[in-house]
Specification:
Oligomer: single chain
Number of helices: 18
Radius of gyration: 22 Å
Strand order of the largest sheet: 3-2-1-4-5-6
CATH class of the largest domain: Alpha Beta
Distance between the termini: 38 Å
Number of domains: 3
Length: 446
């Protein structure tokens, strides 16, 4: 709780913390909007394929002409990573291929990296973190995004002596959403296609939140950062409000929905018939914890925690997240403390491509939020055993055989060049972590 005082001391003695931002989209823009109000923090360079768009984004969030003129704008993210006026790189492109490329470039240049790009983190984050640690730099999740906020809550629970039963987030979910395509997404957000287009909203990106892909990706990231395990055959998305977290997200053997303690899960803000859940957690994150003694359980009751019927399970939650507006916490933690705000330490969860409809040989997959596949969360060892294709690699690759609706797409189902950097790096990670028996895996087996 002293990041701001550390920043002030750093600014007085060594000058500002200098940030290089790659990708000036929505997340990056939300961060840029806060920068003028954080003395001692400066964005020295912004990389974006469209430099004019990046400058317009700065103007839109309130930057004045002097601040824009003092900032370097480039197209090449890898070149940004090598600059002498960058202390920490923020990767916010959303592209798995670009994320791996830029993370490796930052590590090679001795720069800390904050990986906003959860898609890249789930594709290869555990190995990227290993390489960063070996190089003496920080590889970190992005505070403000749900995985890092959840990881913080899990760390709090464990550091205070509680067993973590489950951790995750809320979202709007119905089973039919897995089959929604960009053509039908806006009705679920209460918008017309015309209004969405006028607002510059990307239908495929928004559909990735609706069809379950983002949830799978984010829960894989949490599982990998917190040594938790995914459900054995995908997320359950149980309807659940904040008052019922401790009752629903506990093991089946005590009346809950979970296979065992130590899992990740997403709760839905909709009942299965479409009615809203009372006191939903659509925008927030949570951790369900278990008291490990009768005394601790008694304290839950004494201090008013809502518990399950046994009195031993309780929940803590954060109802909202501010996304890019909170990103400076990760940046300052990396530079001033040498600590990540969440980091992929094990390979427990994987988000794999799953057919939205019957797919034919010769069709090209169009990635997350598209017309062909959605992301499904699986335990990593199950994904490896089945040869499942990560959703992060399901972009612009052609099928070489038919895939039935609802089936997981496999590496053997597609024609893919395994010499391309991010594909080869993923394969390297699979070899490095294959057969790893983590604490989460041991818990699941017990």
């Amino acid at each position: 709780m002293n990041l701001f005082s550390l920043l002030q001391r750093r600014a007085e003695t060594r000058g500002p913390v200098r940030v290089g931002l790659i990708g000036a989209g929505k997340f990056g823009s939300m961060y840029l909007g806060q920068v003028p109000f954080i003395p001692g923090l400066a964005v020295s360079t912004i990389a974006d394929l469209d430099v004019s768009r990046a400058k317009n984004a700065c103007r839109a969030v309130g930057w004045d002409d002097a601040r824009i003129a003092a900032t370097q704008f480039v197209q090449d993210g890898a070149a940004l990573c090598a600059r002498d006026d960058v202390d920490v790189v923020v990767e916010a492109t959303g592209s798995p291929a670009a994320g791996v490329k830029h993370a490796l470039a930052a590590i090679a240049s001795g720069k800390h990296i904050v990986m906003v790009n959860v898609e890249a983190d789930v594709l290869a984050g555990p190995l990227l973190a290993q390489k960063a640690n070996a190089a003496g730099v920080v590889y970190s999740m992005a505070y403000g995004d749900q995985p890092a906020l959840t990881a913080e809550m899990v760390d709090w629970a464990r550091a205070t002596g509680f067993r973590v039963a489950c951790a995750g987030k809320g979202t709007k979910y119905l089973p039919a959403y897995h089959h929604v395509t960009p053509d039908g997404v806006w009705a679920h957000y209460g918008l017309t296609p015309e209004a969405a287009k006028a607002a510059g909203m990307n239908s495929q990106m928004f559909n990735s939140f609706l069809d379950g892909t983002k949830s799978a990706i984010e829960m894989a990231a949490i599982a990998n950062a917190c040594d938790l395990t995914p459900p054995s055959d995908g997320l359950l998305f149980p309807p659940c409000g904040v008052d019922d977290l401790a009752s629903v997200l506990r093991p089946k053997n005590v009346g809950g929905a979970l296979e065992h303690n130590g899992t990740v899960e997403v709760v839905s803000s909709l009942e299965r018939d479409g009615r809203p859940v009372f006191r939903d957690l659509r925008w927030g994150v949570y951790v369900v914890l278990e008291a490990q003694s009768d005394y601790a359980a008694a304290c839950f009751a004494q201090y008013g925690l809502k518990t399950d019927a046994t009195g031993r399970y309780a929940a803590q939650y954060k109802p909202y997240h501010l996304i890019g507006m909170e990103l400076s916490i990760s940046i300052l933690s990396a530079v001033l403390r040498g600590e990540p705000t969440g980091q992929s330490r094990s390979f427990n969860g994987d988000a794999v491509a799953t057919a939205k409809r019957a797919l034919k040989s010769g069709e090209a997959l169009d990635g997350e939020g598209g017309y062909t596949v959605y992301g499904k969360l699986l335990p990593a060892q199950k994904s490896l055993g089945e040869g499942a294709l990560p959703i992060g690699l399901a972009h612009h690759v052609k099928l070489v055989r038919d895939v039935p609706a609802g089936a997981v797409v496999r590496w053997s189902d597609v024609a893919i060049d395994e010499t391309v950097q991010h594909v080869a790096f993923r394969r390297e990670m699979e070899r490095a972590f294959a057969g790893a028996r983590t604490a989460a895996a041991r818990t699941a087996a017990e």
